[in-house]
Give the backbone structure.
Amino acid sequence: MRTFSISENDIQLLKAIRPFMSGKSQEMLDLLLVTINVFQPKQPDQKINYDALNTLLTMVHESIQSKKNNEDIIEIDEYEHVTNEQAEDVENLLNLLAKKQDNKD
C-alpha cells in the first residue's frame, strides 16, 4: 500500500535541476527527496521505507550536530576579541589576589 504518490518523472526533474541550485537549496532538495522516499516503500506490504527513514534521521542528526559545533566555534571566536590590555588586567588582578592569599597564610 502506498501512502504517498509522486511521479517518478517529477523526481527525476528535481534531480536534474539540483546541480544548478545553491548549496543550501541542494541540501533542502536532498531532504525533500529523502522524505518522499520514506513514504515510498520498496515492498508493497510496508507503509514506509525504513532505509529512507534511517537516512532522513541521520541527515537531521548531522544537521543538529553541525549547528552545535558552529555554536561552539562562535563562542571561541568571542574570546578572540579580548585585547592584550584586557588580558594583562586579568593577569594583574589574579597576581594581586594570589599575593593577598599568600599574605593571609
Notes: The chain has one domain: 8-104.
